[in-house]
C-alpha cells in the first residue's frame, strides 16, 4: 500500500468508515501477530496485545493523521508486546501457540524457545522487520547490544541448543 492510499484511508477512518480501518491495518495483521506470538508464547496473549494496538490505532486515527503510519504502527506493536512481556504475561508452555502458528513455522517455534531477550530481538528483526537502530531505540540499548543479542540468538538456533518443542 502506498502513502497516498494510507492517507486516503486515514481520512475515511476519521469520518467513521470502519471498513477503511480494516483495509488500512490488514497488511500489518499477520506480522504483528507473529511478533507478539514469538515473544509472548501464547495465542490469547498475542491476540490481546495486537488487539490493544489496533484499538489504540483506531482511536488515534479518529483524532489525527499518523505520519508515517507504517513506522508509527511498528512502534505501537513493539511497545504493546514489550509491555505485555514486562508484566510477566508470557506463559512458559507453547501448546496454545503451536496451534496458532502459520504454516512453515519451524523457525518461529525455535525462536519461541529462546530466552526472552533473544526472542524479543529476533521477533522484532525478522517478524516485525525492524532495523537494528529501531530495535535499539525501542529497547533503550546500544545498537551493539542488539547486534550481540541477534548474533547469540542465531548461534543458539544453529547449535541446536533450542530444539523444536515436541
Overall description:
The chain has helices spanning 3-14, 18-40, 43-63, 69-86, 95-100, 106-112, 116-127, 132-139, 143-158. By secondary structure, the chain is an all-alpha fold. Helix 2 packs across helix 4 and helix 2 runs antiparallel to helix 7 (116-127). The longest helix has 23 residues, at 18-40. It is elongated and about 50 Å long. Residues 89-98 have low confidence and may be disordered.
Strand content: under 5%
Which class best fits the helix and strand makeup? Answer: mainly alpha
- Beta-strand segment tally: 0
Q: What multimeric state do the chains show?
A: single chain
Mean pLDDT: 82
Radius of gyration: 16 Å
How do you describe this structure in short?
The chain is an all-alpha fold and 166 residues long. It has 9 helices and no strands.
Strand and helix layout:
Blueprint: H1 3-14, H2 18-40, H3 43-63, H4 69-86, H5 95-100, H6 106-112, H7 116-127, H8 132-139, H9 143-158
What are its keywords?
single chain; 166 residues; mainly alpha; elongated
Amino acid at each position: 500500500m502506498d502513502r497516498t492510499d494510507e492517507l486516503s484511508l486515514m481520512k475515511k477512518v476519521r469520518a467513521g468508515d470502519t471498513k477503511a480501518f480494516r483495509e488500512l491495518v490488514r497488511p500489518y495483521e499477520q506480522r504483528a501477530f507473529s511478533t507478539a506470538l514469538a515473544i509472548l508464547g501464547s495465542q490469547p496473549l498475542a491476540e490481546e496485545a495486537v488487539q490493544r494496538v489496533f484499538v489504540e490505532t483506531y482511536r488515534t486515527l479518529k483524532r489525527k493523521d499518523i505520519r508515517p503510519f507504517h513506522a508509527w504502527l511498528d512502534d505501537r506493536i513493539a511497545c504493546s508486546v514489550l509491555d505485555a512481556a514486562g508484566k510477566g504475561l508470557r506463559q512458559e508452555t507453547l501448546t496454545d501457540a503451536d496451534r496458532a502458528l502459520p504454516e512453515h513455522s519451524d523457525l518461529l517455534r525455535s525462536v519461541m524457545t529462546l530466552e526472552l531477550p533473544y526472542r524479543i530481538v529476533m521477533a522484532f528483526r525478522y517478524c516485525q522487520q525492524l532495523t537494528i537502530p529501531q530495535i535499539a531505540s525501542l529497547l533503550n540499548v546500544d545498537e551493539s547490544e542488539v547486534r550481540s543479542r541477534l548474533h547469540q540468538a542465531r548461534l543458539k538456533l544453529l547449535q541446536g541448543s533450542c530444539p523444536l518443542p515436541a
